[in-house]
TrEMBL record:
Its EC number(s): 5.4.99.2
Swiss-Prot/TrEMBL cofactor(s): adenosylcob(III)alamin
SUPFAM superfamilies: Cobalamin (vitamin B12)-binding domain (SSF52242)
Name of this protein: Methylmalonyl-CoA mutase C-terminal domain/subunit
Record-annotated B12-binding domain positions: 5-136
InterPro entries membership: Acid_CoA_mut_C, Cobalamin-bd, Cobalamin-bd_sf
Length: 140
């Protein structure tokens, strides 16, 4: 894992214009040694998945504060499946009610970081999850 940097795409889907949290996470992941691509505000699921494929990322992080998290996670998950890229790790953060976490997990969302979560926890999660991905793909 020392020879290869983890590549993560951080995205803000939908019309939500608040991206401070996404930028904080992006900076923390960079500080942890990862290569981070931040797509900016108001991204569609198609834009997010296409960018992830073009950038050959290991993981996609969605930041959702608008309450539309179920819609966006479902849409991104389906597009990843449709494009043969369901091995890309999908995680997220934002204002997401606890009662939605089991359904997100069932969709295949690896982890959700809600307000107060540690950026160090997010970095550690990604290091472990990506290592498992690389081993499964024979890239470790």
């Amino acid at each position: 894992m020392e020879d290869r940097r983890i590549r993560v795409l951080i995205a803000k889907p939908g019309m939500d214009g608040h991206d401070r949290g996404a930028k904080v996470v992006a900076r923390a992941l960079r500080d942890a040694g990862m290569e981070v691509i931040y797509t900016g505000l108001r991204q569609t699921a198609d834009m997010i998945v296409n960018a992830a494929l073009q950038e050959d990322v290991d993981a996609i992080g969605l930041s959702v504060l608008s309450g539309a998290h179920m819609h966006y996670f479902r849409e991104v998950t389906q597009l990843l499946k449709d494009k043969g890229a369901s091995d890309i790790i999908l995680f997220g953060g934002g204002i997401i009610p606890d009662q939605d976490l089991p359904e997100l997990e069932a969709l295949g969302v690896g982890r959700v970081f809600t307000p107060g979560a540690s950026t160090q926890d997010a970095a550690e999660y990604l290091k472990e999850a990506v290592q498992r991905r690389w081993e499964a793909l024979g890239d470790a």
